[in-house]
Design goal:
484 residues; alpha/beta; Peroxisomal Thiolase, Chain A, domain 1; OB fold (Dihydrolipoamide Acetyltransferase, E2P); 2 domains; five-stranded mixed sheet; globular
Length: 484
């Protein structure tokens, strides 16, 4: 199949050390591209690259793609894309594959990277951190059409993801009918196993695993970030990491004499891009769109007679892993990860799916895996993706976007405009606000079944929330505050 899309080159980079030992994100990404080109076995692939797609990170560069193309003496300047948070990382891969299979392009590079660890070292070592200034815009700057949060959420929880996922986690706990302590023990055990996987992963961020007790118990090094999550439950984005994939047509791979051992194929992918803020989701613990996308992938697995040997479930926080496990019908007590999770393998802000995909491709190349499934998330568990990778294919790349179906079936709950009344808690968390004061944030449904966010800074109530299950209970409120 001439236009069949195939990955021929991959790379993942991890840097540790002192400030001087570390690169800024642009150089990290450049090195990842160089390594991926060399990994393909034929450096002339760089003369056939038609596009470069980069998920936006913490960095300020306008268009790293064109700089990298020029820095590596590409024969032509490719079309460049930068995609913001709110766009699935898997979507970059899917778009490239679809364009290749339609014969619109010959080859594409997908890459991402972060240098937050270098920034952290600059503070510790009192050194000046600066980035290369790139002011030229990419050909396409892509962002989601919808907002990630409601105004009420942004006011109460800010833009940090941990509070949103922690609120989802309590809703999952209630739905699973787990006790508060039982639940904390289970996610600590889960993450103990993840840390073992990450410590054995050459590209993983940590060097040694953590014990269940270290993860479970709050400490100076493992502070509670948002109940029930401690730091060791959460994605670690203070890393110096980058990853790159080169995808091309089978015809071009043949023309360049790319070794068959290098070739790994995207088999099928599904995306849900139906974007609903957490406050308006019918069920905080479940996404219909996610379930539709998962069902499509399960149907493809069955239709094509595929056996999935390995998974890497997106792992920014425990809630994501649990929701993916449920949607795919997997055992939640089995750690489906080849990376070791974003808490321990490293969680570069908007490019982890590239790392988990590279890791899966490496395992497929090494014949440790025949077919593997990688999942992804964008935003606050807002959008989800699934992709099957394998050494052999039976047909063209199969892609499905379930967004339209999800939009029809999953209707956002209206927001409450009641200032005083009674509501049922559907999810909650506790964290320290910008004044370093502990505060509880509660998602509630009022007597008209509309959603509202409440807060409380009463220590007695906060302590009770940590010990007892309060999802499903009623509270009285006035002017956005819980009445005690």
């Amino acid at each position: 199949m001439q236009n069949r899309s195939v990955v021929i080159g991959v790379s993942a980079i991890k840097q540790k050390g002192n400030f001087e030992d570390l690169d800024e994100a642009l150089i990290l990404m450049d090195k990842a591209v160089k390594n991926a080109i060399n990994d393909s076995g034929n450096v002339s692939i760089k003369d056939h690259i038609d596009e470069i797609r980069v998920p936006k990170g913490f960095w300020r560069y306008r268009d790293p793609g064109k700089w990298i193309a020029k820095n590596n003496n590409f024969k032509k300047i490719p079309t460049t894309y930068v995609t913001k948070i709110g766009v699935l990382q898997q979507n970059l891969i899917n778009e490239s594959c679809l364009k290749i299979e339609k014969g619109e392009i010959n080859a594409s590079i997908i890459l991402g990277g972060e240098a937050r660890y270098k920034q952290l070292r600059s503070i510790i070592e009192e050194r000046k951190f600066s980035e290369t200034e790139l002011n030229e815009n990419p050909d396409f700057y892509i962002k989601a059409k919808e907002d990630l949060y409601t105004e009420e959420e942004l006011k109460n929880l800010g833009s940090m993801a941990v509070g949103y996922y922690a609120s989802i986690e309590t809703a999952i706990r209630k739905n699973d009918q787990e006790g508060v302590e039982e639940h904390k023990e289970k996610i600590a055990s889960m993450y103990e196993e993840f840390s073992k996987i990450a410590a054995a992963n050459d590209d993983g961020w940590i060097n040694k695993p953590y014990s269940k007790e270290e993860i479970l118990n709050s400490s100076q090094k493992n502070k509670m970030l948002a109940f029930p999550y401690n730091k060791l439950h959460c994605t670690s984005w203070n890393v110096n990491q980058s990853a790159a994939l080169i995808i091309c047509s089978e015809e071009l791979a043949d023309k360049l004499g790319i070794d068959m051992d290098k070739r790994v194929y995207p088999i099928s992918s599904a995306e849900n891009n139906h974007m609903i803020a957490i406050q308006q989701r019918p069920k905080l613990y479940e996404s219909l769109g996610m379930n539709y996308a998962a069902q499509y992938i399960k149907d493809e697995i069955k239709r094509q007679g595929i056996k999935i040997d390995a998974y890497d479930l997106y792992s920014c926080f425990p809630a994501a892993i649990k929701m993916f496990s449920k949607s795919l019908g997997l055992d939640e007590n089995k750690n489906e990860s080849i990376t070791g999770s974003m808490a321990y393998a490293g969680g570069p802000l908007n490019s982890f799916v590239l790392h988990s995909t590279v890791r899966m491709i490496q395992k497929i190349r090494n014949l440790e895996v025949n077919y593997g499934l990688v999942t992804g998330v964008s935003g606050m568990m807002t959008k989800q993706s699934f992709c099957i990778w394998g050494k052999k294919y039976k047909e063209s790349f199969i892609y499905k976007d379930v967004t339209d179906k999800a939009r029809i079936k999953e209707i956002p709950i209206k927001l409450s405009n009641i200032n005083e009344g009674e509501g049922v808690i559907v999810g909650y968390t506790i964290f320290k606000n910008d004044k370093d004061t502990p505060i509880a944030i509660l998602y509630v449904e009022d007597q008209l079944q509309r959603r509202k966010i409440l807060s409380s800074n009463q220590n007695n109530f906060l302590n009770i929330l940590k010990k007892e299950e309060w999802v499903g209970r009623k509270v009285k409120f006035k002017d956005g505050k819980v009445i005690h």
